[in-house]
Amino acid sequence: MRSTYGRADREITVTAEGLPAWLEPVARALRDVEPQQLSRYLPPATGGRRSAVLVLFGDGPQGPELLLLERAGTLRSHAGQSSFPGGALDPEDGDPASGGLVRAALREAEEETGLDPSGVQVFGVLPDLYIPVSGFVVTPVLGWWREPSPVGPVDPAETARVFTVPVAELTDPAKRATAVHPSGHRGPVFHVDEALVWGFTAGVIDRILHYAGWERPWDAGREVPLDWSS
């Protein structure tokens, strides 16, 4: 399936054509996934700030990998957390229904990590999800890093570091557990690359691994407590 969105600042094409064989299960499994299969937190009928994140797969030294970043510890919200690149929809991105959210994901990724968007092939867009604590309605945009470019923190006041995580680490049962927040929320957590990935980002990764058939049996009863500042 191929979609092309006219220019707001530039034309965007969404296609799964030419993906590496190892990435095809993701494109195939998530093509028709329903919102409730990804999260119990779904957008309200009205309200919420539109935003997008880039779920970017690459082919690294240890095989398939995902691009993540660590937010600066001085930020007012989600400080120090690991996340996908992304952020709020800006007017320059255009209409959300006409490729604006795809442009937002690519623009934010460039602003945060310095990656070259021209080397990214967008191959899918997941249903909108919701982050109640911040009020964001988030659209995960799936990308294949066809032509990798150098990345790193563009603004240290916002991003502490940029790193990639091998999918093999994310599927390693020893790296997985259940995060328990003092609020009572429970969800998947990953211990990877000296980082604790939890919350919205971990939830999306967990569902991708599951529906792509990459998930390995892990002990969901192993719990990791989170403090009030998380």
Automatic annotation (TrEMBL):
For whether the record's keyword set contains Hydrolase, the answer is yes
Q: Which key words are in the record?
A: Hydrolase, Magnesium, Manganese, Metal-binding
Q: Which cofactor does it need?
A: Mg(2+); Mn(2+)
The keyword Nucleotidyltransferase belongs to this UniProt entry's keyword annotation: no
Residues forming the Nudix hydrolase domain are 48-192
Reading the lineage from the top rank, the first entry is Bacteria
For this protein, the parts annotated as crossing the membrane are none
Q: Which GO terms describe its molecular function?
A: coenzyme A diphosphatase activity; metal ion binding
The UniProt entry's coiled-coil ranges are none
Recorded protein name is NUDIX hydrolase
Its source organism is: Streptomyces caatingaensis
